[in-house]
Amino acid sequence: MTDLRIGIVGVGAMGADHAERVARRTAGARLVAVSDPDTVRAEALATALPGDVRMIADPLELIADGEVDAVILASPGFAHAEQLFACLEHGKPVLCEKPLTMDAASALRVVEAEHKVGRSLIQVGFMRRFDPEYAALKELLASGELGRTLMLHNVHRNKSVAPTFRSEMIVRDSLVHEVDVARWLFDDEITRITVHAPKPTSLVADGVLDPQLAVFELANGAIADVEVFVNFQVGYEVRCEAVAERGSATIGLGSGVLTRAAGQWGGAMPADFRVRFERAYDIEVQRWVDAAVRGEIDGPSAWDGYAAAAVCEAGIESLTTGRPVDVDLADKRQILG
Ligand SMILES: NC(=O)c1ccc[n+]([C@@H]2O[C@H](COP(=O)([O-])OP(=O)(O)OC[C@H]3O[C@@H](n4cnc5c(N)ncnc54)[C@H](O)[C@@H]3O)[C@@H](O)[C@H]2O)c1
Ligand SMILES: O[C@H]1[C@H](O)[C@@H](O)[C@H](O)[C@@H](O)[C@H]1O
C-alpha cells in the first residue's frame, strides 16, 4: 500500500517535532511538505529531513496541494479555524493541535462544517489520551475496580513559557489539556468552571495571572481540581490523582530512575512536553495515520475540541470575575443528529 503523504502547517516547536516523527518513525506515512510564514525555518527543516520534502510558503496552498493526502496543523491557535475550513473544503484528514480554535462559537462552526461534509476528518491533538500512563489510568477507572470515581486532583507545571503567554492562554492553551482529560476520564461533560488566581509569581510580567487553580464540576456530580503553573522554573511536571470509592490512583510521578547518592535521592525532570509526552505523540500520530488511511479518526473529535473550547471560554470569564461560570454547551444531538 502507498504511504499517506503528509503536509505540516507551522513548523515551530511542535510542528518541527511532528515533522521528525512523521519523517523518521511513523509507519505508512511520508512527510512531503511543510509550510510556515518563517520560510527560512521551513526551508531549513525541509532540507534537513530525509526524503523529498517541499517547502510551500502559503499554508492554504499546502492544504490544497494534490500531492498532500493529510495535514497536521501545528500553527498557532488563531490560525486554526481558517486552515481547518480549508482542510474540510479539500476533504483532507487533519490532526489539529489544540486548541481547536480560539473560542466556542468558531469551534462550533468547525463542528457544523465537518458534519456537513459527512465524514470525520478532524482529530484534535489532545495527546494525553495516548500516553500509556493516562491510558492505564482510564482503563483502571473504567474497570470499576476502585468503585465510582469521585474526584481528580491535577498538577500541570511548565518550566517556563514565552513572555507573550498571557493569563487567558494559560486557560486556553494549558488548562485545556485537563479539560479534555476530565471529560475523557469521566466520559461526561463539565458543566461549571471556576478559575482562581492567587497572588502571581513575581517572575512574570505585570497582569499575568500565573499560577491558577481551576475547579471543574461535571454533570455526574464529580469534581476535578487543577493547579496550572506555567513558569514553575524547575521542569515539566504533569500529575493526575483519581480518587474513587475504594482507592486512588496516581500517574505522572516521574519515578523512572530514582538515584540515591551523596546524601540525596531523586531523579530527573523532563524539560518540556516533547520529552514527557514523546511516546504519547508517537502513538497519537501513528494511530491518526492508520485511521486516516481507513477514512476515519481514532482520537478526540472536533466535538471534543469544541466542548473544550466552551469550557475554556467560561474559564476565562471566571478568571476575570473570580466566580463560577456555567458552561454553555450546544446540544450535541441537535447539532450532529
Ligand atoms: N499537544 C501539545 O502538547 C502541544 C505542545 C506545544 C504546542 N502545542 C500546540 O501546537 C501549536 C503550535 O505551538 P508551538 O509551541 O509549536 O508554537 P511555536 O510558536 O513554536 O510555533 C508556531 C509556528 O507557526 C508559525 N505560524 C505563525 N502563523 C502561522 C500561520 N498563520 N500559518 C502557519 N504557520 C504559522 C510560526 O512562524 C511558528 O513557526 C499550537 O496550537 C499549540 O497550542 C501543542
Ligand atoms: O502548548 C503547550 C502544550 O500544550 C503543553 O502540553 C502544555 O503543557 C503547555 O502548558 C502549553 O503551553
Report on the structure:
The longest helix is centred in the middle third of the chain and has 20 residues, at 167-186. The chain folds into 2 domains: 4-127 and 279-300, NAD(P)-binding Rossmann-like Domain (Rossmann fold); 130-271 and 308-336, Dihydrodipicolinate Reductase, domain 2 (2-Layer Sandwich). It is built from 11 helices and 15 strands. The model has no long low-confidence stretch (mean pLDDT 96). It has 337 residues and is an alpha/beta fold. A 7-stranded mixed β-sheet has the order 12-11-7-10-9-8-15, with helices on one face. Strands 3-2-1-4-5-6 form a 6-stranded parallel β-sheet, with helices on both faces. It is globular and about 50 Å long. Helices cover 40% and strands 23% of the residues. Bound molecules: nicotinamide-adenine-dinucleotide and 1,2,3,4,5,6-hexahydroxy-cyclohexane (INS). 1,2,3,4,5,6-hexahydroxy-cyclohexane (INS) binds at residues 158, 161, 173-174, 177, 230, 273. Homotetramer. Keywords: NAD, Oxidoreductase. It holds the Pfam family GFO_IDH_MocA_C3. Residues 4-125 form the Gfo/Idh/MocA-like oxidoreductase N-terminal domain. One of its GO terms (molecular function) is inositol 2-dehydrogenase (NAD+) activity.
